[in-house]
Amino acid sequence: MATNNEYRLLGRNMLYEGTRSISNRKSLLALIVGLVTGFCMAEFFILASPSHHSWIPYSGHIRGDVNDPHNSRALVDSFGPDEDVGKHEHVNENDTVAKQLYKEVRVLCWIMTNPKNHQKKARHVKRTWGTRCNKLLFMSSDEDVELNAIKLPVGEGRNNLWGKTREAFKYIYTHHLNDADWFLKADDDTYVIVENLRYMLYPYSPESPLYFGCKFKPYVKQGYMSGGAGYVLSREAVRRFAEIGAKNKTLCRADSGGAEDVEMGKCMEKVNVTAGDSRDSNGRGRFFPFVPEHHLIPGHTDKNFWYWKYIFYETDEGLDCCSDHAVSFHYVSPNQMYVLDYLIYHLRPYGLVMTPDALPEKIDHKRKETTEPKMALPPSAGNSSDKS
Ligand SMILES: *[C@@H]1O[C@H](CO)[C@@H](O)[C@H](O)[C@H]1NC(C)=O
Ligand SMILES: *[C@@H]1O[C@H](CO)[C@@H](O)[C@H](O)[C@H]1NC(C)=O
Ligand SMILES: *[C@@H]1O[C@H](CO)[C@@H](O)[C@H](O)[C@H]1NC(C)=O
Ligand SMILES: *[C@@H]1O[C@H](CO)[C@@H](O)[C@H](O)[C@H]1NC(C)=O
User: Which terms does the record give in the GO molecular function aspect (predicted)?
Assistant: First the structure.
């Protein structure tokens, strides 16, 4: 709130002179009303916008917020273990289908990071879920030998995130377009279950102009994908982005400013890349902009929280929130990445064995080329999984 200093700057010495006459008292009242109104409006705009002002703490939690951050500032000081936690194999695990998809649905993951986070955050992605990508790249503004980070020609900081994403996809187009079928952008505090991403993508052709993620409603007609939850582009989408969008400033923003995910969403729409539907056959989401606790616990945030206004598809709380084959969660601290790795890939209830559902049929993309939005509906052909 305004201090005495600010009052002095804003209203000269009104606070002191205000008592002298009625008209001065009115000015003082007007000043206070103005300040309060301004503050409230600022607060409104801050809460209404996820990416532009996300460093402002959100206090709309109804229950608990200890491990449930809503802005990147909350994780600024978190870091993981120096030593790796180690690894071991499971000889009885049947990974036949996962291995098949590793070959058939190749995923390149690129991690948005920055020099301050190489050690604190990015390194823990590399030691946990990053290893499961067919190819893993770290995009930064500086090199890092241990991380093998790529130095992109962009400045650092929030105001350059869009520029960094644009340069990252241009770099991938030039150097790695044939190394994968799908291209995932994630943050260094995103956790991804790569096997489930491949399963979701399996029916789609990488030659369709498509991208998937956690879809939000505003700013872009067909919706746009949350940056923090991560989003994945088909090879054709990357090609259109680099060959058409990134070369034409009437289609895609040419400077580095703006909200990264919104600019990407506008750009994808302009180059006719369809914003796909990533829900499973039960209508449960797979990409999440927060940690599981946030989505799972009913009434965890109040309904004025921006997420409820932004989310494209109607979304349940409780166990129906999230697919049994969920793909991503955001604001995951480095330590929690090891915890999730343990819970998802190691901890097993004895005697319960899950057999994977049959793979869905492939969608014939040639029949419905380009912008037909139906193409992006969730596959209901095998009616996969998730039956409760
Ligand atoms: C492993 O799983 C696949 C697919 O479910 C199945 O066909 C195969 O028989 C299983 N192998 C073993 C050794 O159980
Ligand atoms: C950029 O895109 C606009 C709209 O599609 C088009 O009219 C224009 O010719 C394009 N410019 C270039 C240089 O390709
Ligand atoms: C996108 O589709 C529209 C409508 O079919 C078309 O007019 C436009 O030229 C296309 N734009 C690009 C960049 O392919
Ligand atoms: C999948 O579910 C839909 C709607 O519930 C149903 O119409 C369809 O027959 C099912 N398909 C298969 C292959 O079970």
Answer: glycoprotein-N-acetylgalactosamine 3-beta-galactosyltransferase activity; manganese ion binding; nucleotide binding
Torsion of CA 20, 21, 25, 30, to 10 degrees: -130
CB of 92 within 6 A of ligand 1: the answer is no
* Between residues 283 and 47, the one the model is more confident about: 283
- The ligand minimizing its distance to the Cα of 267 is 3
In the chain, what are the domain boundaries? Answer: 95-281+327-346
Report CA-CA distances (Å) from 278 to 175, 231, 262: 28, 10, 18
Mean pLDDT of 73-85: 83
State the distance from the centre of ligand 1 to the C-alpha of 356, rounded, in angstroms: 9
Please name which of 229, 226, 232, 233 lies closest in space to residue 329, comparing C-alpha atoms. 229
CATH (one of 2.40.50.1020, 3.90.1150.10, 3.90.550.50, 1.10.760.10) for 95-281+327-346:
3.90.550.50
Cβ–ligand 2 contact at 251 (below 6 Å) = yes
290-342, pLDDT tens digit by residue? Answer: 999 989 999 888 888 888 999 999 888 899 999 999 999 999 999 999 999 99
In the reported structure, the alpha carbon of residue 250 is separated from the centroid of ligand 2 by a whole-number distance in angstroms of 7
> Which tens digit of pLDDT belongs to each residue from 260-300?
999 999 999 999 999 999 999 999 999 999 999 989 999 88
CA 204 – ligand 3 centroid, Å:
21
Residue 221 alpha carbon to ligand 2 centre in Å? 20
pLDDT band at 187; cut points 50, 70, 90: very high
Count of CB atoms situated within 10 Å of the CB of 26: 11
Best of 272, 368, 371 for a ligand 3 pocket test (most atoms within 8 Å of beta carbon)? 272
Of the pLDDT bands very low, low, confident and very high (cuts 50, 70, 90), residue 38 is low
CB of 268 closer than 8 Å to CB of 213? no
Identify whether the C-beta of residue 218 lies closer than 8 Å to the C-beta of residue 277: no
What number does the ligand 3 atom closest to the CA of 244 have? 13
